[in-house]
Design a protein that fits this description.
It is built from three helices and two strands. The protein is mainly alpha-helical and about 80 residues long. The protein starts with 7 loop residues before the first helix and ends with a helix.
Length: about 80
């Protein structure tokens, strides 16, 4: 029986497992990801990036979700820094 290759999600999770060992590394990765998300958010808001599902423009929902996700994670980081 052939062996299936692991899914991309499993490979990615494995690639990151054990990589972030310090709070400083976690914070830096969040800052990098946050900057990328804000760039994407800016493109959605300017209309240069459009997200479609079944032919329907769902960019407004994507903008709302990105904003909420960024704020939620910012709150987690802030709480973690306060608890440290």
């Amino acid at each position: 029986m052939p062996v299936k290759a692991p899914s991309m999600a499993l490979r990615r999770r494995g690639a990151y497992h054990g990589v972030m060992k310090t709070d400083a590394q976690v914070l830096q990765r969040w800052r990098d990801l946050r900057a990328m998300l804000i760039d994407q958010l800016d493109m959605f808001e300017k209309g240069s990036l459009v997200l479609r599902s079944n032919g329907v423009n769902i960019s407004a929902a994507a903008v709302t979700d990105l904003k909420r996700s960024i704020l939620d994670f910012d709150a987690l980081i802030t709480k973690g820094e306060a608890d440290a």
